[in-house]
């Protein structure tokens, strides 16, 4: 008589699989953590022997192989001129090592606070290279770490040079300036001297404005405590619109027209006698008529820029935050910063 035993599932089969990392990956991670611990974030960096590194390039290894073959040939055939040539070249290489390393050693790097930029346009970083040495420094390159777009500069004796390195943020918001790399291969190109720099600065990236700019939304009735129209004047949103062909010249706001002509544009605005001057301009997400959040923020950004260009008073409503109507550069930055960080 056969007895049947119920089969039970193995506990190891039901357990989720673990992702096992290779020893090389663990070592690389630990080495990277140790490396970054030696490079603290700072907007100013002075290059010394502790943070400047040197290694031969591909051309340097080929030169070393050539010198080795010259030495073997001179020993084999007892060539005195071969010895002379070999040791002369070795002496030149030794001098080039010192010159190459000293090109970066002692250099002072300073990053200026980056200005806010719009998404889609590169964020330039202004870096000042200062040298106290009495000899000039040649062929110093800077780039974002991991990038191949180098910017090269020469630093004069006891002077400074300004270098602009650009990086492309992937999204709006507040971004830490990426790690930078400085390098030189002067004078022979047989050795590469470099340093790694982690700036502590941050750059604010505004949302990308919608193009072409959509029409501004309609105004809202002004609250009772906001003051009368006579107290606020005529040159506000409720009495201003874009110029249309056929508008009487007396309705054109020539003060704003003069500013537009000076800026090289022909944007004109006219007073709108049909609108009530008891309205104020508000921008909010619901007024955009869009569904995607990023598209809404892009349209609000375009409205802010358009209203600022026209010199209008405008306010901004976001989820959990309200910026009252105002105008000017400080108000524009406040609204754009709120849109970037929302």
Report on this structure:
Strand 17 and strand 18 form a beta hairpin. This protein has eight helices and 18 strands. 32% of the residues lie in helices and 26% in strands. The longest helix is centred in the first third of the chain and has 25 residues, at 80-104. It is elongated, with a radius of gyration of 33 Å. The strands form five sheets. Strands 2-11-10-6-7 form a five-stranded antiparallel sheet. A four-stranded antiparallel sheet has the order 1-3-5-8, with no helix packed on it. It is an alpha+beta fold.
H and E string? HHEEHHEEEEEEEEEEEHEHEEHEEH
DSSP strand (E) fraction? 25-35%
Radius of gyration: 33 Å
DSSP helical segment count: 8
Uncertain regions spanning at least 5 consecutive residues = 1-15, 225-238, 273-277
Count of strand segments: 18
Global structural class = alpha+beta
Biggest sheet, in brief?
Answer: 5 strands, antiparallel
> Mean pLDDT, rounded to whole units?
84
Q: Largest sheet, order of strands side by side? A: 2-11-10-6-7
Distance between the termini: 75 Å
Helix-residue proportion: 25-40%
Shape: elongated
